[in-house]
Sequence to fold (159 residues):
Amino acid sequence: VLVAHCDQTSKKDIPLRGGVQWVGSPGRLPKTPDGGDFVIVVNPGPQDQWEECDKRTRGAGVSVFLNSISGGWTYELGGPLKDYEQVYYLKRVSKGWVFRAYPGKWQALVEAPDGTTVPLKTYDERPLLRDVSKLVRDFSFTNYGLMNDRYAKGFGGRL
Fold:
């Protein structure tokens, strides 16, 4: 198992077990990965970095990209590499979440005033972000009104 990271933070103090090896940036892979290798790429940034990591790890048996929390490279759901499957996905939308855990379906979840999540709809295929956002927001306003505003003190009682 080879773990490449795309940030400048030193990982030398993180203990690894069982043949797992930090390799630094993807450009420092000790060899070209082959079908027996499992490669994890942590926190790739801009589009060109995703593409470079993809090119360098293409021969691996399995490549996993752990994307950054911001996801600032797209306004849609999913990553910048179209031929990769999102196996675990959690993205905040206004008043709720979009969630998927492979092999399950995509889900639109609304966040209730008490902090629980309510599943609204499941999708066989990756939905459009704007469709999920509208569904969640409309449901929240219709069912909870102003009592579901997590940013305003006194509304919903969560702050």
